[in-house]
Amino acid sequence: MLALLLVGPIALPKHSATNPSGINATAPHPVPILPEAWPLSLAAGAARVVEGTFRLGDTFGNVLNQAGVPGRLIDQLAHAVKPDFNVQRIRSGRAYKIYFTPDNELVLFRYQRSEQQTVLVAKGASGWRAIEITIPYKIRPRFIQAKVLGSLEGALEATSIGRTGAIRLAHELAGIFAWDIDFSADLRVNDNVNLVVEQRFLEGRFVGFGDVLLAELNIADRVYRAVRYQRLGAATAYFTPVGQSLQRAFLRSPVDFTSISSGFSHRRMHPILNIAKPHYGIDYVAPAGTPVHATATGTIAYVGRTGQAGNHVKIRHGGSYTSHYLHLSRFADEIKVGDSIEQGQVLGYVGRTGLATNNHLHYQLDQSGTFVDPLRINLPAGAPLADELMPDFIRQRDAWISILREGQVDRPLVLAGSGE
Ligand SMILES: [Zn+2]
Question: Whole-number mean pLDDT of the chain?
Answer without folding.
Answer: 82
